[in-house]
Design goal:
- The complex is a heterodimer.
- In chain A, helix 3 (about 100-110) runs parallel beside helix 5 (about 155-170) and helix 5 packs parallel to helix 6.
- In chain A, the strands form 2 sheets. A 6-stranded mixed sheet of chain A has the order 6-7-8-3-9-10, sandwiched between helices.
- Helix content of chain A is about 40%, strand content about 25%.
- By secondary structure, chain A is of the alpha/beta class.
- Chain B is α/β, with parallel strands linked by helices.
- In chain B, about 25% of the residues lie in helices and about 35% in strands.
- Chain B has helices at about 35-45, 50-65, 100-110, 115-120, 130-140, 150-155, 155-165, 175-180, 415-420, 430-440, 440-445, 450-465, and strands spanning about 1-10, 15-20, 145-150, 185-190, 200, 215-220, 225-240, 245, 250-255, 260-265, 270-280, 285-295, 300, 305, 315-320, 325-335, 340-350, 355-365, 375-380, 390-395, 405-410.
- The longest helix of chain B has 16 residues, at about 50-65.
- The termini of chain B are far apart.
- Classes of the chains: A alpha/beta, B alpha/beta.
- The interface between A and B is medium-sized, with 32 and 27 residues.
Chain lengths: ~270, ~475
């Protein structure tokens, strides 16, 4: 098994001039599952979006490397082709574009990072067979492939669509941003089983979550807690369980500066902070 | 008596043709339009005198009518154009003469060799007899008439005369008058009562005809309970040195019948494409125009449906895509001339690189057309700050008990949408193309499959290297 490493060092990120991340350090190895938790405003989604290269997120200091390569120097589509993936909290609708077409383009580009626009896509027959297999594995209705990307999807359907992309693209590192929020218990169970089935030992997983349901089937090796734009504490699975049952009080008390920063960020109501 | 004449025209090309005639007249190919030219056109085609008279009257109307004061920039010199070119004298006479970018486009669109040459005007007709011959036989057996209009004037004169110029009289507008005077080529289709043609009839099925005429005249009559889908045009760029194209299309859809007329055209940048298209739909009949226009220097095109009897339905789906130096002034007209009629317009326009796409539409509900329903959706996508989109909707309602809806939107490619696709490995250009293709999907899904594929590829070509 190849050993990929995603290394984030002293990452500082601002949105519209306002600092959100204030020196995040994180190392993820291939095959590891990390949970990222923290109250609202702590910067969890921001971390994910900064890794993926969203244009609104300015990295003011620090570095991100994937197997030693400078990720910050890569355009978002190059990052995807390098093997980074994020399942978004609120994925965008692309009206008129079928899931299957979209997936075929995405899969081709990620598998052939050097592909130039206009070059051949994965042959239709091969792609269809693969898609069918993956959808069956995830217990998805084949009709789903014909629907327009995220257009008129329920919250659960959007999350399932993100998971399907994860299955098809097989990234080196995947960030799941609150993939369980807005889902009922059955849907969460299904989502978490799906992720486990995709094979989290084949990739590095960063699960951003408030709940522990997703983690039941995907127990993390490390749990990180964010507060005020920094990771303040790291533990094992038991930390996630603790936070889920008793909340963030202990954390807030233990790290008052970070807590103050967090309150500040929430007060400013920066839409990007999550 | 057959006369074989070789004629050298003003620009030094040698044109050769055969024709049969009673007279010893020699056809001089020259620019401009006047009684002599019009008379000669009629003579070459051996038309009955009623058609010749029709042409000459139309010429008079053309000369008297003023130019439209709206639409696009129509600074044309009418006397600087050839109005009639013999079928064998296509422009781009050898394959070598065809511009490289046209050839490249053919390659990118995956068009087979023989078709390329036909489309470039290098061959006079598409040698498709073997493939399409059997289809033609089937049609003949059902009593369907599908031929070019020139032939129909000679062989189906009475049937044609009953309808010709009745839907769009020469007095309708200046360009209809011009077409009525100098028309050549186009399709004539008659579908007998109850006959439903399963496969789309395509312009290039017509053997022995030039499909790319400047002044095509098409007439389609769908008799009671019948149905037909006619497809015209192709996505390959229309390459021609003559810059004025002014077609007229008349369609009659009788009671309980159905007709769909699909056009996908991609014009080169020097073309003025000014078309008058109108259909009359009778009791419980349905008429659908599916109209895709890309390119051209200026296109003015407003497919119309007049719903003449209760239960009639008109639907118009229109896409316009304009790029640098191009102006699409396109739209639709729906006239409710009877009660309990329904109409729908969906217009999608895209402009990039300084192109200009306009929607110009009319919905009219005449007195007595109560309980009519109509909805218009016009969406514009502007891809960069240099480009322009305008909407000119006209709504004239003379009845109380009606439902009229109008929705319009203008958008650009969303940053978040773009980022989402980029985060899946697509390049910016690929992502923009995908979004644009999604934008026109409601129309593309109505096209026959091979056209849909070509349409998507064409959008891709248009979009490449133009992200902004």
């Amino acid at each position: 098994m190849s050993k990929h490493v995603l290394r984030i060092e002293n990452l500082n990120v601002s949105v519209a001039g306002k600092p959100i991340l204030r020196g995040v350090n994180l190392v993820m190895n291939h095959g590891e599952t990390h949970a990222l938790m923290g109250p609202n405003g702590s910067g969890k989604s921001t971390l994910g979006l900064a890794i993926m290269g969203h244009p609104h997120y300015d990295v003011t200091e620090g570095s991100i490397t994937l197997d030693g390569e400078d990720v910050l120097a890569m355009e978002p589509n190059v990052r995807a082709r390098a093997g980074l993936f994020m399942a978004f909290q609120r994925p965008m609708a692309i009206p008129g574009v079928k899931m299957a077409d979209f997936l075929r383009h995405a899969t081709t580009n990620v598998r052939r990072p050097d592909r130039k626009e206009g070059e051949e896509l994965i042959p239709m027959r091969q792609f269809r067979a693969e898609l069918k297999e993956k959808m069956a594995q995830l217990r998805m209705d084949p009709e789903f492939a014909r629907r327009y990307v995220n257009d008129g999807f329920s919250g659960g359907e959007m999350k399932r669509a993100e998971i399907l992309q994860l299955a098809m693209l097989q990234p080196k590192f995947a960030i799941l941003d609150e993939t369980d929020s807005g889902l009922d218990a059955d849907a969460v169970r299904l989502a978490s089983e799906s992720i486990a089935e995709i094979g989290r030992e084949k990739m590095g997983l960063l699960i951003i979550t408030h709940h522990d349901k997703l983690l039941e089937h995907n127990p993390p090796k490390y749990t990180h807690v964010m507060l005020g734009g920094r990771i303040v504490e790291t533990g094992g699975y038991e930390l996630a369980e603790e936070l889920h049952s008793t909340g963030y009080d202990r954390i807030r008390k233990a790290y008052p500066d970070a807590d103050a920063a967090n309150q500040e960020m929430l007060a400013e109501e920066t839409p990007a902070a999550a | 008596m057959a006369i074989d004449i070789t004629e050298t025209d003003q620009i030094g090309e040698i044109n050769k043709y055969n024709f049969r005639t009673e007279t010893h007249g020699v056809f001089k190919a020259r620019k401009g339009v006047d009684r002599e030219i019009v008379g000669q056109i009629s003579e070459i085609k051996q038309e009955p005198s009623w058609m010749r008279d029709f042409r000459l009257e139309s010429l008079e109307i053309f000369e008297q009518k003023p130019m439209p004061a709206w639409g696009g920039d129509l600074s044309l010199d009418f006397q600087d154009i050839f109005y009639y070119l013999k079928p064998t004298s296509h422009q781009g006479k050898t394959w070598d003469d065809v511009p490289q970018e046209i050839k490249d486009t053919f390659d990118r669109l995956g068009i087979p060799e023989a078709e390329k040459k036909y489309l470039a005007g290098v061959k006079a007709q598409f040698e498709s007899e073997v493939v399409y011959g059997s289809l033609k036989e089937e049609l003949v057996n059902q009593g369907v008439i599908f031929t070019d209009t020139d032939t129909a004037v000679r062989e189906h004169s009475e049937l044609l005369r009953e309808y010709f110029g009745k839907i769009i009289p020469p007095s309708d507008n200046k360009f209809a008058a011009l077409n009525s005077a100098v028309w050549s080529g186009g399709s004539f289709i008659y579908v007998p009562p109850g006959v439903k043609i399963e496969f789309p009839l395509q312009a290039y099925f017509r053997i022995n005809a030039e499909s790319m005429g400047q002044f095509e005249r098409t007439l389609i009559i769908v008799d009671e309970g019948a149905s037909v889908h006619y497809v015209e045009g192709c996505t390959a760029p229309m390459y021609t040195t003559e810059s004025l194209h002014s077609a007229v299309v008349e369609v009659i859809v009788k009671r309980n019948a159905r007709c769909r007329y699909t056009t996908i055209q991609n014009w080169a940048n020097n073309i003025y494409n000014l078309v008058t298209k109108r259909a009359y739909a009778y009791g419980d009949a349905t008429m659908e125009w599916v109209d895709g226009n890309l390119g051209s220097r200026l296109t003015m095109k407003y497919p119309a449906v007049h719903m003449m009897e209760p239960g009639a339905r008109g639907e118009i789906l229109s896409i316009a895509f304009s790029s640098a130096g191009q102006h699409q002034d396109a739209g639709a007209k729906l006239v409710h001339a009877a009660p309990h009629t329904t109409g729908q317009i969906i217009s999608k326009s895209i402009s990039k690189n300084g192109g200009r796409s306009s929607y110009r539409g009319l919905v009219r509900v005449e007195p007595g057309a109560h309980h009519s329903k109509n909805s218009v959706v016009c969406d514009a996508l502007i891809l960069d700050p240099e480009s322009r989109s305008d909407t000119y909707p006209y709504i004239e309602v003379c009845e109380q008990d009606v439902q009229i809806g109008h929705e319009a939107s203008v958008s650009r490619i969303g940053e978040e949408q773009l980022f989402y696709l980029l985060s899946r490995g697509l390049s910016e250009s690929e992502a923009s193309t995908m979004i644009v293709n999604g934008f026109i999907e409601p129309l593309v899904k109505e096209l026959p499959m091979e056209y849909a594929v070509e349409m998507n590829r064409l959008i891709q070509l248009q979009m490449e290297g133009s992200v902004g």
